[in-house]
Amino acid sequence: VEDIVKANRLWKLLLLAFLPLAGWLGAETVQDAVLTTAPDMPPAIGSRGPVTLKVVLTIEEKNVSILHGVEKDTLYPAWTFNGTAPGPMIRAKEGDTLELHLINPKTSRMAHNIDLHAVSGPGGGAPATLAQPGEEKVARFKLLNPGLFVYHCAAPPVTWHIANGMYGMILVEPKKGLPAVDKEFYVLQSEFYTKNPFGSEGLQEFDNDAAEAEKPTYVVFNGSASAFTAANPLKVKVGDRVRVYFGNAGPNLTASWHIIGVIFEKLWAFGSTAAPLEDVQTVSVPAGGSAIADFKIKVPGNYTFVDHAIFRIQKGALGILHADGDANPEIYPAAGK
Amino acid sequence: MKFALHIFVSILGMLAASLWLSASAGKTQPWPIAFPSDLGPETVDVSRYPSDLQAVYRGVFQKRCVTCHAAARALNSPLLELEPKRIAQLEAAHSPLLKDEKLAKVGPEVWKIYLKQMRQRPACCGGCSAMTDSEMKEIYRFVRYDSVVRKSGRNTLPWIARRKALIKKYAAFRRALEEEKD
């Protein structure tokens, strides 16, 4: 009996010794992705090697608030990834394998899928992930190119699926990573088309004619004209190095993203993480595109970010970033002095 | 008989409007005059309003709205928010409130929509604070009540007369400016 016990122990020790060797030989490491809801970002990845990154997205058809109301909020019957429009931010690294689980509950009225602009191959993954109500689809994609990419549902009709809120973003960090910053935010612009005018309260109805005419009722950041109000701004401190991962889901308009009183010191245009531009005032972001902006806040106060196609602020394209800290009169005098 | 009464009330309204406009004339105007409403009075007598609305008028309306425009613009605007049922009654009665949107713009959500547009202003590009949701709700309660009291019911015809007088006065004001420019 003692011999059997000894042999068992020896076998277990051998197995433990062999595990790192198996890893070195290329056995797969699967990690659950950290998913965040806008405006939060998942933490920077750091210096790890490639992994298989498991991402679970569940379709949810639900009413979302797109504007705070006087008596009732303005609600839109959205189709979402994981219950929010925009859907979660996925953070991966160049060379990772994305293992995507797309769950479409039985209660859904439509088939849904996902087209990731970070994926190389037909449909960006859409045909491989098309899930009928009640189905779960699993597909693996190699992330070959770094950058900030939009993803969206591409099930027919793709127009309605994007107009109804099915979009989000995936950041594929380059192998060497991105420069460290103090604060990171995820901001995505999109449009809603409703039959009633801007500001009407209660549940709204999608207006296909307005969408075809490219005349949105709402142009919003992070799914709501009230996402960043005076009471709920993005918060930073004077001296913080801030980075915004900005996307535009459309479905129609090109964004002219600008922060009043801020110059983008580094700007990775079109979501490419190659050499950044410097000292940029406004960045044009096409529907289905993105940009990454770094800047330092030097003076305390409120900074309003807008789509500088400026009438869109009246449709909701307006948000506030608030900076706390000491005044800096050498750069910016106090009012009236 | 009804027609004669109508004419009599209209004349009374016109007279009241003239007196009201001359009383407000000559006041310092801190904001540019861009609309007929800007030429009207900048205050309203709220002494008979519910006490909570009097407090909103003094504590919120008179402080917040003047951040971006004269209080007169809101107080003399044609906006009148009524329940759909009440609007249907006005339609059935061929009310003059529904004849011309420059005189009275009646709808079930006109103030709600207007106030949300005001909240969407970029707060002087960061120089002053933006309107908060709670301020918007308070101001809504006041302007809705105030406009129902002063623009509908027995005040319908006097209100329409006031708006006509303001529009006329604004046209004269613009003409004078153009002449000055020439």
Strand percentage of chain A:
35-45%
User: Structural class per helix/strand content of chain B?
Assistant: mainly alpha
Unreliable sequence segments of chain B: 21-29
What percentage of residues of chain B falls in helices of 4 or more residues? 55-70%
H/E element order of chain A: HEEEEEEHEEHEEEHEEEEEEEEEE
Description:
- The complex is a heterodimer of chains A (337) and B (182).
- With 337 residues, chain A is mostly beta strands.
- The radius of gyration of chain A is 23 Å and the shape is globular.
- Chain A has helices spanning 2-24, 126-129, 158-163, 208-212, and strands at 30-32, 52-67, 74-81, 89-93, 97-104, 115-116, 135-142, 147-152, 167-173, 183-192, 202-203, 218-221, 234-237, 241-250, 255-259, 264-268, 277-280, 282-285, 289-296, 301-307, 318-324.
- Chain B is 58% helix and 3% strand.
- Chain B contains seven helices and two strands, in the order H-H-H-E-H-E-H-H-H.
- Chain B has helices at residues 2-24, 51-64, 71-75, 84-92, 110-119, 133-151, 156-181, and strands spanning 79-81, 105-107.
- Chain B is globular.
- Residues 21-29 of chain B have low confidence and may be disordered.
- Classes of the chains: A mainly beta (337), B mainly alpha (182).
List keywords for this structure.
heterodimer; A: 337 residues; mainly beta; 6-stranded mixed beta sheet; 4 helices; globular; B: 182 residues; mainly alpha; 7 helices; 2 strands; 58% helix
Short description:
The complex is a heterodimer of chains A (337) and B (182). Chain A has helices spanning 2-24, 126-129, 158-163, 208-212, and strands spanning 30-32, 52-67, 74-81, 89-93, 97-104, 115-116, 135-142, 147-152, 167-173, 183-192, 202-203, 218-221, 234-237, 241-250, 255-259, 264-268, 277-280, 282-285, 289-296, 301-307, 318-324. With 337 residues, chain A is mainly beta.
